[in-house]
Amino acid sequence: MSAPTAAVGRGQPRLEGRQKVTGTARYAVEHPVDGLVYGWAVQADVAKARIVRVDDAAALAEPGVLAVLSYANAPRLAPVESEELLLLQRPRVHYRGEIVALVVAETLEAAREGALLVRIDYDTEPHSSVLTERHPSLYKPDKVNPNFPTDTFVGDFDAGYEAAEVRLDQTYRTPAYHNNPMEPHASTAQWQQGRLLVHDSSQGSTDVRDTLAGLFELSAGSVRVTAEHVGGGFGSKGTPRCTPVLAAMAARHVDRPVRLALTRQQLFGPIGYRTPIIQRVRLGADADGRLAAICHDAISQSSTTTEFAEQTAVLTRGLYAAPHRRTTHRLARLDVPTPSWMRAPGECPGSFALESAMDELAVACGIDPIELRIRNDTDRHPEEDLPFSSRNLVACLRDGARRFGWADRDPTPAVRRQGRWLVGTGMAGATYPARTPGASARARAHPDGTYQVDIDATDIGTGARTALWQVATEALGVPGDRVRIGIGDSDLPRAYVAGGSTGTAGWSLAVDKACRSLRRQLQEQYAAAVPAEGLTVSTDTAAEVAALTQVARYAFGAHFAQVRVDVDSGEVRVGRMLGVFATGRVVNPSTARSQLIGGMTMGLSMALHEEGLLDHRFGDWVNRDLATYHVSACADVERIEAYWVAEEDDRVNPLGIKGLGEIGIVGSAAAVANAVYHATGVRFRTLPIQLDKLL
Ligand code: MOS
Q: Residue 628 Cα, ligand 1 centroid: separation in angstroms?
């Protein structure tokens, strides 16, 4: 037998890469279905209202239009936890852009035309859609996403801060950010003898299956959701969304399979976004920069239908040592769509505030910003009061400084001139939880010497399928071309969504266990000869992960950026970004690097470009396409590098894997903003940093 060809730790191209670039990979609305009809969503053009009347006569007169669904005639849904999924049930509008009707037609064109002809009369009410520090609706949520305490207190912040030699008190503001995956939210739904089959663009088809079963009052076995290929999500497909629900309702109503894809413009609202956030950070330190007191107060927004509480200040609970600490979260309930997950919800915007404040503290103390972070390192999580399974923040900082060439940096701002450009460098620290959720998996040996490994994991473009194949191949100890991986189907063994950077750790553990158990059974009972009927092993790791040692599990990182700012126009160009990360064992260096530089670029995008601009008169975003909402691409950074330090961590989980899908964006925006300060001497506490603000 030849050696395994896909060992863990070796760079591997994506298994489905060829299918994707040749257009044969099937996405949610590319499955061929007989008798297919099309849906088109109609959105409210007022922010808060009662719907008085839906006039569908003109739409129904349009050739090809089969139905107009609204609160008046749509199939009834059973209550579920997320109220925003109770679509077309009540004559209420909670935000501008809410889907209030769905036109179903024989062709996409007829559905779109019909949607333009639907007339809705509203009884409007005054709305409130702008987040402020003193919004009258501000309240303290019971917990923050996904399950963290809202506020935490260690020591006595006020006393510690009062007594500190150096005090910093600053407020940082970030706007709404829209996830903008390449593939919009899209679903194809069909009812087959009472069973519901949905092809959905989702980060987790098991959750979508369970939610649809709840809404339509079906057993879980009566619903199947697939998500074989998904064109990105960045969190916006991490929870069940409107498209599978609407497509299933419409399919039931017209008794035909229904395909529904949102347009790019329709993604700005109904599918979630990163909330605008106001963050006040107070740091108290001695003259040497040793932190005595840290306070991080975050205010974000939620909707009037479903609560989403961003865990903005949670990273401040564990990144640096300090005897006195307070973190709080408050929410305003506005007449806006419900915010949701967007790549590193919490840690990403939280790190912009904390890591900007740390840079300001370094300046105030006259200390190098890397040295400041090293002085405040800790080997125990300050709030969980547990040792870290591994904590290599300092190793990342030192390795990054060496690679980037930080040593001879002159901290003086606004003194480096190259022609018409002012040049500066900045850095930031990063951390992200390294969770390992339990999962189930199944491995099957066939008599022909091939293996089938199945798990309802999702590959949203990250390379998850390939990583699991590497793990399975190594565990089975056979050549990679004999191993097939099945994912993206709720009929497969249950697994947690592709979210929270948990996939590679949690799914791999289940896959590894199933494959090793299968291999052992083959060797012990069948002398490695597969029985004629094949052999299947199913495993679940829920008990195993629940029994893992009590330690604090986190990945760490360090970001470095070099920018130049045009002295006349204020244009900011990013010449270089460099990140070093400590993320345990890296399964596939090729796709890991892609995830890290993708996250770093998304942080650059946040620092300089992305901004949901809300028109308060209408309560809606003005920029709602990729021409007016600018998302950075690889061309926006001239040189980008991602590295990782060797980290063997057998306490984080038995495979030593920490997820790395999100840590790349954590701290990245702060590194860019800190570099802009170093270049210009202008401190930006409100993102994005745009040229008009630099002049
Ligand atoms: Mo990610 S924002 O946890 O899907």
A: 24
